[in-house]
Amino acid sequence: MVSKMKYYISILLVLGGIYELGAALDAHYYDKTCPQAETIIFKAVRDALARDPKVPARLLRMFFHDCFIRGCDASVLVDSTPSNKAEKDGPPNLSLAAFYVIDAAKTKLEKSCPKTVSCADILAVAARDVVVLSGGPTWRVAAGRKDGKISRANETLNLPSPSSNTSQLIQGFAQRGLSAKDLVALSGGHTLGFSHCSSFEGRLRNFSAAHDTDPTLHPQLAAELKRKCPKPNGDRNAGQFLDSTSSIFDNDYYRRVAGGKGVFISDQSLLGDYRTRWIVEAFARDQGLFFKEFTDSMIRLGNVGVDESGQVRENCRLVN
């Protein structure tokens, strides 16, 4: 009885946190003011994907990086000025790309529905659309986010790192009202990912006093990565896809992690921690379960830091 009571209290606390963070959002927010909003965003994303297969991974990562700093307020889209170095120029965000897709959608929306659709909502919808266009699940994106007025590069140092362990990741997610299950589900976004050598080179050579190579890294993958990244700080374009079906949204990422073939320390550590191992193994076995949990976690992520005091930017790169 006591354990059940603790369980119910935990659920209520989680639900209470979600409600508090996402109180301003509504799936029908633009029904009257801009009913064509999602169609316009979808077309902009689809057209960009037709020209650049990297768009899905780039936009999904952009959404994650936006929501983890100041919440989902499009602060990651703001350009730096002489007096302010913005988030997109913070060290973890220098590899972000495809901002032009959000710009294209915003330009069309400003013609159809001036000063109505926030850049934060555009990014949230675009993140859903790239998953769908890559063969993944769909979900209703609740809208009503406002665009933040502050964007600071130094705050991006709080983003999760590829070298983070599971305890560090769980702590970072908890600070944003997200659970260990959300951590594992959202890590599945790496199914669309590619990484440059610099993000995992530390696992390949001089890993520790006892091991030259990270012992949790599968020997076959270690040899493959060493071939692709023969020199520390070598070819900046060299790297590795994070799963074997990099253009398809599926559960292959979890199969690889379960087999010791996670590219990042942050990926592989999910298998080594009792709090997350069972989730990785469940998602590796059941793609449908992963899809369900991923959509639920994306909805929770999209609720983080919703700010009713923001604005609707006319240009996503500039604060009004």
Automatic annotation (TrEMBL):
Residues at which heme b binds: 190
Gene Ontology cellular component list: extracellular region
Gene3D superfamilies: 1.10.520.10, Peroxidase, domain 2
List of residues binding Ca(2+) 2: 191, 245, 250
Protein family membership: Belongs to the peroxidase family. Ascorbate peroxidase subfamily.
Database matches in InterPro entries: Haem_peroxidase, Haem_peroxidase_sf, Peroxidase_pln, Peroxidases_heam-ligand_BS, Secretory_peroxidase
Pfam family, one: peroxidase
Disulphide bond pairs: 34-113, 67-72, 119-316, 197-229
Function: Removal of H(2)O(2), oxidation of toxic reductants, biosynthesis and degradation of lignin, suberization, auxin catabolism, response to environmental stresses such as wounding, pathogen attack and oxidative stress. These functions might be dependent on each isozyme/isoform in each plant tissue.
Domain Plant heme peroxidase family profile as annotated: residue spans: 24-320
Protein name (database record): Peroxidase
Entry-linked PANTHER family: PEROXIDASE 25-RELATED
GO biological process, alphabetically ordered: hydrogen peroxide catabolic process; response to oxidative stress
Cofactor: heme b; Ca(2+)
Binding, substrate: 160
EC number: 1.11.1.7
UniProt site (Transition state stabilizer): 61
